[in-house]
Amino acid sequence: MTRSFILSAGVGDPALAEPATSAQILTAAEAAGVDLLLLGRHDSLPFDPQVIAAWAAPRVSRLGVVPLVSTRIAHPFHVARALSAIDFLSGGLLGWAPVAQGGSAAQLADMVRATRALWDGWDEDCLIIDKEAGRYLDTTKVRPSNYVGTHYSVRGPVNAMRPKQGHPLLVCDAASPFAVPGIDVVIAAEGQAFPAAARRLLRVEPDIDVAAMAARFEAGEIDGLHVDLAHPLAELGRIGESLSALTRGRAAEGTLRERLGLPLTLRNVYEEIA
Amino acid sequence: MPRPIHLWAFLQGIGHYPSGWRHPGADPAGVFTMDYYARVGRLVEKGRFDAIVFGDQLQSRGVHGRAPEHLAMPTLDPMALLSAIASVTQHVGLVNTLSTTYWSPEGLAERFATMDRISGGRAGWNIVTTAHPDTAPNFGDDELPEKSLRYKMAAQTVAQAQAVWRERNAELGTSPQARPVFVQAGQSADGRDFAASIAEAIFCSAPTMEDGIAFRNDMRARVAAAGRDPDAVKIMPGLSFILADTEAAAIAKDQAILDLADEKLCIEYLSESLVCDLTQFDVNGPIPVEAILAQTILPKADIARVLEKPAAIGLSLGKFAAGYVRTPRGHNVFRGTASQLANMMIQWIEAGACDGFTLQPAYMPGELEIFVEEVVPILQAAGALRTEYPGSTLRETMGLPRWPADMAA
After folding, report:
1. Eight-class DSSP state of B66
2. pLDDT (tens digit, 9 = 90+) per residue, A222-260?
3. Considering only residues 356 to 395 of chain B, which have any Cβ-Cβ distance to chain A shorter than 8 Å?
4. pLDDT at A253
5. Do B73 and A136 touch (CB under 8 A)?
6. How many CB pairs under 8 A join A and B?
7. What is the pTM of this model?
8. CA A87 to CA B51: how far, in whole Å?
9. Among A47, B197, B282, B341, who pairs with A17 as Cys (CB 3.0-4.6 Å)?
10. Which of A47, A86, A156 sits opposite B138 (nearest CB)?
């Protein structure tokens, strides 16, 4: 299977909470071939990224929407519910980037595990919805998680469905690292260690030496690039153009996991524990 | 000119009737798709409703870990649904329910600050304290805080959220409404006093016009006693409805939906309502009052009151459960024609029973479509319902003061 180049961008501008600006940025990001648009930065959340992600859900057709989720204000039960809904509403184009703002990496990892446990209370084929027979749910496929972690305990299951993708794509920023099995994508700067993950993105400035990056991608050193945007509209236009050789011809259909070739490897937390 | 009628759409799950999901006009799979919410959002805006309201519950589904098999999923996360609907509509308000017991003041304040901005000033907050005991274990607790303590916490949380909004508005520029419109739904004395102190709109149950008049008079007196203007608080009782071309046809339609509630569904619904697993008992036997009171984690005195009459007249468990499904949550249920419903609504408004209605369609989206197509034009022709939105924010739509006094710097 050919490896697909991954283009990621991040916006931490408060103007993302203004509908007119946000709409323009989403359109520009799709046009530029961005795969992952991170909402917020690990050191700056001037808005609630989950609200922006939900608002963006009906407006994206291939762009992966990736809200930052901070332990500063988030509880796993709220996170599990909101992300499940946004994944359905976006047609399976959701990722999430947990960050610890002032908290510990251990707490962050615990939040990720608890959230996954809540999702895993529902099997993906648990819904029957048979009007004729009056059966809505296969109850043998629903169970409490009874998760007990170091910072969070949750009984569960989440009082909403498992996300459309099973779990939204899990993105880890090396600036706010956490260690759990099954991280899908990591972002790290030059010289920074990449935590274990399926795909590795190098954090670069908007002005990129494209040839050098293409060579590193071909060599399998990196799987793509991440750019923090300071002036989103202008920079997205430039990046889209300069990287077109790397982003051309990639899959445009399907869920984010399908498009990026990142199937859910952790079926549920019970397997993780085993 | 009649007093204007305010309309809210309470769009929980797949409709107000527990058996509504089985109706041919219901779309139970749709509640997992954006297409469904885009359709519903535009429909409500076409009907010139003030707002869409989603309730919320934070307990896991089922009684003590036993998930129901015949009841539809309650809902996805309301914040996500309302923010997504904001994206595909321009005017309709978006009232989101968040718990003051299980949200941090900072977390909920940031959530609403963003919702108000991204929606162009359409956010409302239905302030709840969370009453279901099964919620606690989802947040690492054994038990809910006691009720009066929950209301004390609510007052504190609201005050802390107001402080965060003032700070955010100073840093980032004031959001279109400065803060969300405050909505409250408590019916107890604690709930009513809390509502009188802060609410700008109140959702309640009023099964009859007399109940509505009594509630509205009581609330207006409490609001005035709290030093606030009673006209700046809208009373919005729930109203479920079944519409057809004749009254007899509506009654038959209602019966047909209730007939979709088979024995298993009724027992599961009663189990959920009483927080007690009743699936093991003989449906033809008596109501197992002792066992219910021993099992339930709801306040036992409240449950004993609910069971007292049906047990005294010797109702079987099955019959009791079937009756319980008929009157979900004690709201007004109307059966009749579109013009009868429009007349009833105007009559309630004229009598001072309410300022508007929180509509709870029996099943979704079919019954809501009938309301918008048939009842809305009658209300508009009578001058009782707006034909255009007066502005863009929920405050303007609701006819509330332009700026909340508590947000002055």
Report:
1. B
2. 999 999 999 999 999 999 999 999 999 998 899 999 999
3. none
4. 93
5. yes
6. 176
7. 0.97
8. 24
9. A47
10. A156
